[in-house]
Amino acid sequence: MKQLSRSRESQKGAVLFTALVMMVLMTLLAVTMMGNTAIDEKMAQNSQDQNRAFQAAETGIEMAIANSGSLNTSNAFKADGTNTFSQGDAATLGSSTTGYGVSVTYSSVFLQKTPVTRGSGFDSTFANYWFELRSKANTDTGASSTVSLGMFQVGAK
After folding, report:
1. pTM surpassing 0.85?
2. Integer angstrom CA distances of residue 117 from 24, 108, 113
3. Helix residue ranges, H only, 67-138
4. For 113-126, what is the mean pLDDT?
5. If 0-12 CB within 10 Å is exposed, 13-18 middle and 19+ buried, where does residue 111 land?
6. Pairing of strands 102-115, 86-88
7. CA distance 131 to 84
8. 5 inside domain
9. What is the pLDDT of residue 91?
């Protein structure tokens, strides 16, 4: 077996320098990944809050349909553009019920009366009364969502 006859003095710290460069690169990579993880968590939280706001707005539409005052032909827009029928049921969807704070308001506007369509089973003494229901939800974190629904109800002329 042949022995290596290199002396330690000839290396002059090349391994130390290489190791330090590698450690700096690994540290930079770790810091960058931690920053990306924090951004990913914030994006996931924002997406979850937006979904909660949307689901609450959908619930507001269901609450508007269940409210007997929503489908009233006297519901209209005022001269200043506001609605004559607007309900807020924030207490129903408060943080004690849902686990997070969300407020919901909904409104209804009567749009027009049209004749019933042929083949609907109704005669000419009935009409379709068209409404637009709109629900807006806001969460405590600032996310908001608005959902609109157009619908009609058949009634006597």
Report:
1. no
2. 75, 23, 12
3. 95-98
4. 90
5. middle
6. antiparallel
7. 13
8. no
9. 47
Tell whether 4 is covered by a domain.
Answer: no
Q: How many domains does the chain have?
A: 1
d(CA 30, CA 157): 72
Residue 3 domain flag:
no
Q: What residues pair up with 139 in beta bridges, in sequence order?
A: 102
Mind listing the pLDDT tens digit for each residue in 61-118? Answer: 998 888 888 888 887 777 776 767 776 654 455 555 556 788 888 888 889 999 998 8
Please report whether residue 143 resides in a domain.
yes
In angstroms, the CA 116 to CA 96 distance is 45
State the Cα–Cα distance between residues 155 and 157, nearest whole angstrom: 6
DSSP 6: -
Give the C-alpha separation, 120 to 25, whole Å: 73
Beta-bridged to residue 151, according to DSSP, are 131
At residue 10 the predicted structure's pLDDT band, cuts being 50, 70 and 90, is low
